[in-house]
Amino acid sequence: MKCSCMDSSASYERLPNVPTYFELSSMFGRDSEDKDRSTEKQEELIFYNDDNSYQTAIVEKNLCVSDLCQLLALKNRVAKDVNWTIVEHWTDLGLERSLEDHEDVLSTYHNMESFARNTSKRFVFRKNFIKYEFFPNPQQFFPVNMIDLGDAEDVPPSFPKSSILHLDRLELNSAL
């Protein structure tokens, strides 16, 4: 199995290394308030629900999103579920981003504050049912027509290509 986008005849040009906003701010120095915030060990943050109710939680340094979701599920008296997530919502801009389970919530908060101090933003605690949908249903995100199954000629045409992908993945995992 080979992804057709990885064809050996394809070529690409590398993008230049452009410093990010955060790299630039560290090079030119941030104001003392930002430096004080980056060394804080904990902070009390507000996490809104979709109905605009909210819970406060003391977020410590290195607290990951998955652990915070379990805590907020208890505080909101809802069932623990892997589909709960924290969403970073920039209300003025109308932008949202689901934080990944391994992300450090406090550092994300500090980055949000240092990036746009006077912009309206908040964290939202909500369910995201497609969070892990890739694992049980990969063909939804990686269509079969993007896969080159050149060595699968001996498979009957009635056999679904998505099953071939699953079998190839199992073979790869067993080889490791």
UniProtKB/TrEMBL annotation:
Residues 41-130 form the Ras-associating domain. It comes from the Eukaryota. It holds the Pfam family RA_2. SMART domains: RA (SM00314). InterPro entries: GRB/APBB1IP, RA_dom, Ubiquitin-like_domsf. SUPFAM superfamilies: Ubiquitin-like (SSF54236). One of its GO terms (biological process) is signal transduction. This is Ras-associating domain-containing protein.
